[in-house]
Amino acid sequence: MVTGGNRGIGLAIARSFAAAGADVIITHRSGTPPEGLRGVLCDVTETESVDRAFTEAEELLGRPIEVLVANAGITKDTLMMRMSDDDFSSVLETNLTGAFRCARRASKGMMRMRKGRIILISSVVGLYGSPGQTNYAASKSALVGLARSITRELGGRGITANVVAPGFIETEMTAELSDDLRKQYLSGIPAGRFATPEEVAGAVRFLAGPDGGYISGAVIPVDGGLGMGH
């Protein structure tokens, strides 16, 4: 299951799994799933919606979810002095508590199977920081503590929990950057370019595959060296 798998990085991850022959279910808040993918409606800010989505996905698959990619997220960027309580709490409610709700629900089936992979999509901003994103950075950095606590709780049940932290990615959002702003961002990236969504998907697939079975509680940066492991 890939939450928020109807666009951007989430869609690239879902398509990557599907191309590898996996049975993929995405979650989306409205509309219909992208062509070629199966989806269930889900609002990660509501526990009942998460439970219902997982139940529907399990019925479609005929078994519990083996791999959860918690990708759904939002931004409400503004300088801290101008940030309202709602700007802060709503971002944490989706990005952090939403990921927790999905991980909690997924773990039930994983514990019965005594196997599972939980992959939380964070951001280089979560560990590197960014002005105007105190809410987003706080929500994304907290995913590291969530993954490591899950690892300590459930590692003995064959369940891994890891974090993937993308940097700047070639998406519709970055395509709209001005040339000057794009040059400014690129100047801080040793690789000298933005990543493709498929490169993030490759890291996620590695953690979900057999070669990632002994990796847990880790943070995997996909940022061209921007964060330098922070």
TrEMBL record:
Molecular functions (GO terms): oxidoreductase activity
Keyword annotations: Oxidoreductase
Keyword field contains Oxidoreductase: yes
InterPro entries reported in the protein's UniProt record: KR_dom, NAD(P)-bd_dom_sf, SDR, SDR_fam
Record PANTHER family: 3-OXOACYL-(ACYL-CARRIER-PROTEIN) REDUCTASE, 3-OXOACYL-[ACYL-CARRIER-PROTEIN] REDUCTASE FABG
Family: Belongs to the short-chain dehydrogenases/reductases (SDR) family.
Listed name of the protein: Beta-ketoacyl-ACP reductase
Species name: Ornithinimicrobium ciconiae
